[in-house]
């Protein structure tokens, strides 16, 4: 992006063409959660509940 701006390019599409893209499987995307409200936060915490204690840390 910086190179495009420095070169005087102002079109976002042109700068985006230079980005390296990494494609991921759909299952990987499920590890990302959008949190915009208290209800979203509760839902995200519920997803993490089964993982509690898996890191070996004492409660």
Distance between the termini: 45 Å
Structural class, please? mainly alpha
Number of domains: 1
By DSSP, the count of extended strands is 0
Radius of gyration: 20 Å
Shape annotation:
elongated
Order of helices and strands: HHHH
Uncertain runs? none
Give helix % range: 40-55%
Mean pLDDT: 78
Number of helices: 4
Main sheet record: none
Determine the strand fraction and express it as a percent band.
under 5%
Characterization of this structure:
This protein has 59 residues and is mostly helical. It has one domain. The protein is built from four helices and no strands. The chain has helices at 2-6, 12-16, 26-29, 38-48. It is elongated. The model has no long low-confidence stretch (mean pLDDT 78).
Secondary structure elements and pairings:
Elements: H1 2-6, H2 12-16, H3 26-29, H4 38-48
Key terms for this structure?
single chain; 59 residues; mainly alpha
Q: In a few lines, what is going on in this structure?
A:
With 59 residues, the protein is mainly alpha-helical. The chain has four helices and no strands.
């Amino acid at each position: 992006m910086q190179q495009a701006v420095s070169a005087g390019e102002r079109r976002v599409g042109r700068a985006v063409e230079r980005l390296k893209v990494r494609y991921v499987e759909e299952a990987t995307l499920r590890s990302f959660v959008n949190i915009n409200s208290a209800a979203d936060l509760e839902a995200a915490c519920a997803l993490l509940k089964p993982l509690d204690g898996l890191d070996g840390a004492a409660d």
